[in-house]
Amino acid sequence: MNAGFLDQTEAWVIALLLFILMIVSSFIGKITGNHIRKKTDTEEKLPETSALIALLFFLLAFTFGMSGERYDSRRKVVVEEANIIGTAILRSDLYPDSTRALFRKDFKDYVETRIAYYKVGPNAQGILKADSLSQIISAKLWKRAASLSKDPVNLAATQQMIPALNDMIDVTTSRLTGEKAKVPPSILVMLFFLATIIAFYGGYSEGRKGKVDWLVQVGFCLLVSLVLLFTLDLDRPRRGFVNLDIPNQTIIDLRKNFQ
Question: Is Membrane given among the entry's keywords (predicted)?
């Protein structure tokens, strides 16, 4: 398992694969434990199983918290971007009607590119293309504002527009960087193997006792898989159960400025 596999595979598929591997590992552990118990004719509960389970849940909680924090950061950046674009659109009203019309036309195109930026989903090429188009339009807006700043008549308006455009350009970089900042794949891979190993030890420990409570074993495997599922889901805002559809609606609502 590698980073490319984790990123390209749906979260529910990874969680299901983990669940199956944990069940299989638990069964193999049970067989191994039974074999050793019959060979040594002793029943024993291994104390290190509890310590491993505690370690696993600690790491799961840490990783889930990391995913939740980054999801919240992405959500705030989307809302912030909508507010910044809205401010820039309003400041175009400070210019004469002819210039204002040019600004508003470009802002309308810019809003559409930012809407498309999210609607392309997890398609990496689509994301880069939409981001590139928005950069072209923002550069056009910046060039116009810079040119108008040389005219004393438009100086006051441009002093308001330049900071708004600067913030608008900067926030796109923050948003793209935020989407790339995910839970390190190495941590997820470690959790995957640790959970599988602990499932083996759980079955092994129960096998040494001579009786396996499969309800507990299956429940444990299911719980771990569900936590991993939602951890991955939070870390993928463009797909899955938990996404950024509602925050992105604030950018879609900017269309109302051009009606």
Answer: yes
Question: In terms of C-beta distances under 8 Å and separation of at least 24 residues, what long-range contacts does 70-75 make, across chains too?
Answer: 70/178, 70/181, 70/182, 70/183, 70/234, 70/235, 71/234, 71/235, 71/237, 71/242, 73/178, 74/175, 74/178, 74/179, 74/237, 74/244, 75/237, 75/244, 75/247
- Residue 210: left (phi > 0), alpha (psi -120 to 50), or beta? left
More confident residue, 185 or 133: 133
What's the rounded Cα separation, in Å, for the pair 187 and 181? 14
Whether this model's pTM surpasses 0.90? no
Give the C-alpha separation, 163 to 140, whole Å: 15
Q: Where are the domains of the chain?
A: 3-258
Position 203 confidence tier, pLDDT thresholds 50, 70, 90: confident
- What whole-number distance in Å separates Cα of residue 249 and Cα of residue 252? 5
Query: Can you give the pLDDT at residue 2?
Result: 52
**At a CB cut-off of 8 Å and minimum separation 6, what does 213 contact?**
206
